[in-house]
Amino acid sequence: MTTTRSPQIESAHERDEFYIRQPYEVYSEENHTTWTRLYARMEDRWAEFANRHFLAGIERLHFDQSAVPRLEDVNEFLRPLTGFSAKAVSGYIPAFQFFDCLARREFPTTITVRPGDNLDYLPEPDIFHDIAGHVPMHTDPAFADTLVRFGTLARRAAARARKLPDLDDRVRQLSSVVKALSRFFWFSIEFGLMDDGNGTKAYGSGLLSSYGELEHSLRSPEVQRYPFQLEWVVNQAFEVDSYQPLLFVIESFDQLFELVGELDDWMVEGRLDNVAQGEPDVGTADIRSFLSAPEEVVIA
Fold this sequence. Notes:
The chain is an alpha/beta fold. It has one domain (about 5-295): Aromatic amino acid hydroxylase (Phenylalanine Hydroxylase, Orthogonal Bundle), CATH 1.10.800.10. It is about 50% helix and about 10% strand. It is built from 13 helices and 6 strands. The chain has helices spanning about 5-15, 30-50, 50-60, 70-80, 95-105, 125-135, 140-160, 165-190, 205-210, 210-220, 230-235, 255-270, 285-290, and strands spanning about 85-90, 105-110, 195, 200, 225, 245-250. A 4-stranded mixed beta sheet has the order 4-3-6-5. Strand 3 and strand 4 form a beta hairpin. About 45% of the residues are buried. The model has no long low-confidence stretch (mean pLDDT about 95).
């Protein structure tokens, strides 16, 4: 189950299967060793740079450091806390399905393990990023509620686009709105910082799963750190293949919850229909996922 070298994942892609089971018996000894190495080297970094909600989540989930986690074991601890669960996927899933999973308190979780000779960087997520980086945050009720609220915005975006009679106008609107939603997710859920009065710490999972960037995000003088500004975030392109030069700081998850509400208001008012160009690219599959969203899950 090594990333980029997994026949099971390739087979699922060929069948267009997004949601799969975790074939735990396929993990190799190298996969388990890689998980152990990744986890062991992060512990000191987490103790110094991770926010207290993440550290509490790590304790609540009782990870086995010696082996790749079974999602069913993770969910046994996670579900009673916030109703969230980790849902195995074959890799990338289109934007609407991803966001809508969040609305249902399901987190799409990659199940492959990065190669043991490439611990520091992968262009795509792996199980360490998703389980060790994201899932501990899902044990926090305020954070979990924020994810759910954010996920429902995809349904509203699909409903708005459906009201437009012209297909080109639907595509144009969705391309901008999905770009804005993706930027919000990037600068908060993936690369967010929090200063709750006890110093600035990381809560973004892209930081919490990166040995190098976690320290860099909080120590480097090259990083610009600003209070979270919605108008800036939705118009700000981001770096995909390098350490982030610009990060945004919130005060609490209650504030983040309210920011999602403000983002929703902006979408309804049309203020996300023409955001600045730049990363991320919104692919054809992402647009199709919104255009083909079942009406029964689309809210007005």
